[in-house]
Amino acid sequence: MQFDTDKLVQYFSDAPEDISLSDINLETIPSHVSIIMDGNGRWATARGLDRTEGHKAGVLSLREAVTTSVRLGLDVLSVYSFSTENWKRPQHEVDLLMRLFAETLLKELPLFYQENVKLRFFGDLEALPEKTRKTFQRGLDETAQNTGMTFALAVNYGSRAELTRAAVFLANQIAEGKVSADSVTPSDFEKYLYTAGLPDPDLLIRTSGELRLSNYLLWQLAYSELYVTQTYWPDFSKWDVLRAIKDYQGRERRFGGVK
Ligand code: FPP
């Protein structure tokens, strides 16, 4: 995707000492960056605050990540917002998150218009509170005409559930005689995933230092480059995006082949 060079240079003009825009190659920006936004709770606890304050602070980082991704010309930014396992959290934290998702989306609609961002969700949305679901639908409707970056939010998402669901869909298609089992390819299978139509992530960023995938995009991350930073999500800034891209650009992607 194209970027506006003037806006980009201006946006990254206040560089810290260790990283600047000139450290990355604008010709090889990843098309799809995905983020596991982790560390909100620890960020808050370290400050003597309730965990929910970490999620509220995390909204600001997310806003910055969206703007940064648009400035850099990404095609897709996706984020892991709520997993199928996150329901196990204290009820007041789950309630706050559901409220925060809905409120943030409404509040940020002007940003999405201004930046030509198209929204997308992936996960089992049926299980979400009605108000959250309705707000998501409104976000989808109101950004459907936008033609710029896709901002995809994983909500009530779990990769094993997604893969199981896809396998069941496909099995039904085969049982009904609509698909021949012998001819099924990986790209046929992908059509049944929540993420159908999105490119696979080129780069996965995980904040807060945890070295695991946490049931996130197990199929789609097959050849993604992984970048883990110790930074907690609420402290993650546009400069951390540049650091991650710089690291990514130093990798040699072979997709199982040789160079
Ligand atoms: C992980 O940190 C974060 C989440 C489960 C929620 C992410 C939500 C936000 C960033 C809020 C805004 C999101 C949207 C889509 C508006 P954690 O709570 O697991 O942190 P911990 O590992 O330190 O406990």
Automatic annotation (TrEMBL):
Single biological process term from Gene Ontology: polyprenol biosynthetic process
Binding site for Mg(2+): 38, 225
EC number in record: 2.5.1.-
Pfam families xrefs: Prenyltransf
Record HAMAP family: ISPT (MF_01139)
NCBIfam families in UniProt: PRK14830.1, uppS
Recorded family membership: Belongs to the UPP synthase family.
Protein name, per record: Isoprenyl transferase
Species name: Lancefieldella parvula (strain ATCC 33793 / DSM 20469 / CCUG 32760 / JCM 10300 / KCTC 3663 / VPI 0546 / 1246)
